Amino acid sequence: MYQLFANKKSQILFVFLRLFAVTLQRLNKMPTGIQPIFKLLIRSMKRKLTLIVVLLLTGCAFAFAQTTVSGTVKDDQGGTLPGVTVVIKGTNTAVATDVNGKYSISAPGNATLIFSFIGLNSQEISVNNRSVIDVAMTSGNKQLNEIVVVGYGTQKKSDITSAIATVSVKDVSSRPIVSPEEALIGKAPGVQVSIPSSEPGHDLSVRVRGAGSVNGVEPLYVVDGVLASDIKTLDPNSIESISILKDASSTSIYGAAGSTNGVVMITTKQGSKGKSAIDANFSTGVQQISKKIPVLNNQQWLALQTEIDGGTAPVIPSFYNLNTNNNWQDLAYHNAMQTNASVGVSGGSEKGTYYLGLGYLNQDGIMVGSNFDRYSAKFSVNQTANKWLTVGGNINYNRSNQRTVPQNASAAHGGAVIAALVTPEYVPVFMPATTNPNPGYTPLVYGYSTFYSGDNPLSDIYNNNNNTIANNLLGDTHAEIKLPFGIIYRSQLNLTMENSNYEYFLDPYKSLNGIQKNGSATQTYNETTRWAWDNTLTYDKTIGLHKINVVVGTSALNEKIFVSSQTGTGFGSSAIQTLNGASSVSAPYSARAEWATNSYFGRATYSYNDKYLLTATLRADGTSRVGFNNRWGTFPAFSAGWKVSNEDFMKDVTWIQDLKIRGGWGRTGNFPPYSLLYPSYTPLNPVKYPFNSSDTSTPGYSPGGQIGNPDLKWESGNSTNFGFDAGFLNNRITITADYYYKKVTNMIFPQVLPGTTGGKTILVNLPGNNINKGIEFNIDGAIVKQHDFSWDMSLNMSFNNNKMIGLDSAKGQIYYTGGVSLGGGGGPTTQIIKNGYSLGTFWGYKTEGVDPQTGNEKFSTDQTNLGSALPKFTYGIQENLRYKAFSLSLLFDGVYGNKVYDVTRQETEQLNGGANETAGVLLRWEKPGDVTSVPSAINSPNNPAIAFLNTNSTSYYLESGSFFRLRNATLGYNFNPDLLKSIGIQRARLFVTGQNLFMVTKYKGYTPDVNSYGNGTNNKPGNAQDGGPTLLSLGIDDGAYPAARIYTIGINVQF
Amino acid sequence: MRNTKIFLACAGIMALGLSACKKSFIDKAPESSLTTGNFFKTANDAETGLIGAYATMRNGFYQYNNLLFTDGRSDNCYVNGDDNTGEWPLENFTYSPSNTKVGGEWADLYNMIASANTVLDNVPNITDPALTAARKNQILAEARFLRAMHYYWLVTEWGPTPLVLTTNYGNNYTPKRATVAEVYAQIIADLQFADSNLPLTAASNDPTTKNQIGRATQGAADAMLAKTYAQMGDYTNCLTYCNKVINGGQYSLLPHFANLWGVANKNNAESIFEIQGNQTGTYYNYGAEIFDYVSSDNWPKRNIGSYDLIQAFAAEGDTATNERYHATFNWQVANAAFNMPLNAWDPAKPIPFTNKMPDAGGFDSPDDIELIRYADIILLAAEANNELGNTAAATTELNQIRTRAGIPNTTATTKTDLALAILNERRLELVNEGCRWHDLLRANANGTINIITLMNSQHDSNGNLLKYGSNGAGVDQHLLIFPMPTNELQLNPNLTQNPGY
Q1: Candidates A757, A766, A815, partner chain B, best to mutate (most B CBs within 10 A)
Q2: Is the complex ipTM more than 0.85?
Q3: Chain B: residue nearest A700 by CA?
Q4: Of A749, A807, A592, A806, nearest to A678 (Cα)?
Q5: Is A933 in contact with A923 (CB distance < 8 Å)?
Q6: Residue A378 in contact with residue A268, Cβ under 8 Å?
Q7: Do the chains contact at A701 and B3, CB–CB below 8 Å?
Q8: Residues A657, A645: contact at Cβ < 8 Å?
Q9: Please, is A525 exposed, middle or buried when counting C-beta atoms within 10 Å of its C-beta (0-12, 13-18, 19+)?
Q10: The whole model's pTM is what?
Q11: How far apart are CA B44 and CA A853, in angstroms?
Q12: What is the pLDDT of residue A26?
């Protein structure tokens, strides 16, 4: 606290608290009774704090004699720089430059001043008894002097010899980003982020350099050195930097931990020495559905139904009113609020630093009934205990509440997204109370149609209560000890804890489904606890022109998983929604699982004369997750770089400033999937047998469906990377480009064994390879760089080609994935993993148009390759414009060449009657001679061509997934620091943002950037004990939650 | 000096970090699922593992599919059913290698064999002193009995089939087929081991003696030996084991045929081996529901008695006495949309539903399922005696069964006539007990009848010839055994197809 007052921050605290109170008051959910209490609290705090501050300030003024140093700070263009922090080294005393770049500070004559400003090089200048010190800050080579976080250490960007992308996250708080992965969208070459579902709180999908495994393509996340399976623990506002390790020469130090899909390194915010600050961010906005799909009105539905019934108009029961025109999309989607508030308090002395962050997010979904809120807290501390010991730690915690609505399912299975399209407009929200007794009629429940099975979307949404409460903790404590010979020993103990409690309740009275089941409730609890202990020794030495850095270490990691689930039915009332209200409880389940890894690793980097760079890495992993005959594996990597621009012969070349050529090779691994954590063992299933026909059965065990494979190895990826980094025109243009070839061997597949084993499956390493190769580049350009006006632009583009080779398809090594569920039952599988084809290949019958004579769709005789869900290339464009205090940033992103299987359309253009259909069917064939792309509906229940279309995977429902979108547009205004100073604010920025403002696409559904299979697989801790692995399924839109257009206004304030 | 201390301290900590890396740290065994790795250590494990081998028998094969394969396929019953891709071809002799029943039940049987093999692989290695050598041998004998019974079905239905005798596959998951003789030899070896190590009866229900009713017994092993030798054409050995069962004094014919069936009559004096179901617990047999007439069920029931079978009952006088006939059939008007193949019965009139598991109740039937019955063995003894020239003994044994059924003694006197009479008696006595197809194969082999002629002369209730075989081409030799499943041929390159498919 002392620090805060000494730096005259007390008033600021009040402003912050007030802002926070106002924020909280605005959140409509806050009970009004709390507001007066809050006010009272602030008032009493204010009085006490003022008194303390006055006392302290008086005390400080008389404590020691000082000389006053003053001056002006300018940037490299000669303009004055406001807001530059000036700190007396080794103390907590700091000031900031004013609007004219002037500062004044009392400092001892022998002190050293540190000048720092975000984005510019810091400078340390000795006072030497001077009273005036003017400073010119430089930004030269800032990018290449950047420090990049790599595995178990950091490196100067200019010394890196592998493929690492860094993503600037300083705009995270200046736009309403709700999940950390979102910060990566469109930002880095070779990194594709897609949004499987736009439901609030849903996971995003990140793919680094294509699809590196058939069992999952998500990268490994490392947060402050802690290996994490995902990053939902983090409030994006607490992130300081993100770097993405893309090639094996950078990722192999993580060995078998899943890194053939790359590693995303996240560093969270820390305090800085001698500088304390309070950052507060607040934004609020409205989200709306970005597109609605036109559906048939009642008359159009009647006309269609009449055609389907062979010309006979359907008899509409009297309890429906054809003048009812419920537009279900209007009823199911609304303009939804989104509020995001965060505050970070940071500071530090020469002895240590701290950061404390709090975050709050409340996001209503555009579909009514969906909501996500998250409370997060972050705390970091670093303390120098004495000359040789430094200790510190981080804690990231959040708690979230999510209410989901059923999606990714047909209307008959309660999918609300499809129900909003197929519920006829005449269906009422609730069935009317009074009507003639009629068989098959149930009054007062949510409206249903007697023409098809499935409730209206509001029933799916409100009658099914799906709530998940999750707690996530990710943290570490570490100690660094300086040993002789410049060796640094670091020991870090990591902990992640995730639990979630899912509760489902189906009201017993309000829907046909509920009445039939007498209500139902499910409770599922998941807990994952993981600890890891890393110990490293680091040696860093420069001898003449030789620079050596060596890291060696060990790591031990253990994860425990607990899952329990139970279901009950028979509820007499909806007043009790927990399982103790159920009259019968069935299928209780609980299971524990555990896995562990032990690792030894080392990395040596050597550079000579800052021209020739070499890096070598070796990791050995032993793990319980592979077969016990293959416990250990080694993962080597080498890379080299040549800084051509540092050669003598380049001295006279003026147009190029930096040129570095890099190349490397390495090996990484993937663990077998989570769904089978003990692959060596043949599980036994619990069974019973009632000897003597006894009423008490004798329990026993018989072999389960899986046979253990003690020889199972990890998937192993060998990757080669070549690239260069170049800076031109005083580094106003920088280019990074890479070529890679990534070959994954020992791919893990579930193999169905002959029936002579009892029809079991086994996880095997199949011969063959999954190959990703591609080119990616990034160009940054400072197009205009003037004092009042600047324009930066950045473009990245990545081409990736994926192919499976060496699979023996003749031996039945063909895997069907992407099974969809149509109507009330099963559906076709849409994808295939087969030799010679890319992962995500859609497989089915090619449609050859509608026969103008019969109105029937024609198909190819055989199933064939219909295209892939993996794009040919992806790209992102970022534009940053600044004029005086205004700034505008635009982020475009796009993908090209991928296909999406539109199951939603297969559901909504069935031409099969009963349900409503989308307006596409208005183009249907009606009489001989009609030339159209939509087949005939006439007498369709008896038409095999329609049945074929509705039960097979065909190109009829396959659409282009290419899109180009304006992901984000932010207009910001920086307030004049002079004006802010009087109220104790250093910096304030107001912004308005629009997200998803437009999308150019041919896709007929809501948005092509979706996948009803989420991340593509279920390879997550929650799927431990599931049994078999789930192979990759991509690009399938089976009633996925639509994307929102979001308008936000927000403010960032720094005190 | 101080630095040195620090260095040593750190080295110590590093060492500690490394010591965590000893093998056990990464040697995790499942906590919530038993596996072959952490199970089969104690005497109790041996017992519960054996339960698994019994419990897997409550699958689709022994509950009803075996009856489709034998009584349904033969002249006894129309398979019927709503599974027109899997089950109808069994009736119509149009099964192909991709038939789902042919493939599914093959895997079912091997799954049961894998359960038995799991016991046979692991129990010998248990060193727990609580497991006595005698009990260990009994456990192995029970498992070998079960395995032999499963192979009996495989070899009779599919012919030469792979012999899988262990779950330690040694990465060899694609076995070659063994010859029929090799399979029979293995069945005999298993059953003889069972015969010499099993207790005579399982009369008690004392869990401590592990001698509960429902377990394999010496009697069951003898009965299976008799059935197996008969199928091999070795009537001498068949008779030996029939007589061992008959003279052992453990079994007797019940006075009334009707008393054999239903929950009140489980594990009766005539029962040699039956799948257990319980009355109020959770382990019901669902097979009964597949066959029994239940007025609320709106799906076709399997194994409706054939027109030919009803005629056979009438010819022997069964319909008049109604003792056996009534317990065998339940004549009802079908309350379901029927897929009767070729309209073999008029669905608007009463048709003969199976009545031998009379307590169906929504797939929760507490009925047991009879697998081997004393009457089967008596008739088998009659058959063997007749084939071996002991006409008098054969006649006596045949008449034992006829008397109990309430019909007069046989009029057959010659060996040939008697063979036909015994075959016919087996037909009427053992309807829907999984015997008929095997009886016909035996009778075909020993020249009593021609199975192909027989099957090609089946009629519907209007007297119209049923056109079996692909495109009505009729039944021929290759259809007498099932094809190897397509799926298996794809997964196992060492497997060859039966001729004709």
Answers
A1: A757
A2: yes
A3: B48
A4: A592
A5: yes
A6: yes
A7: no
A8: yes
A9: middle
A10: 0.82
A11: 73
A12: 47
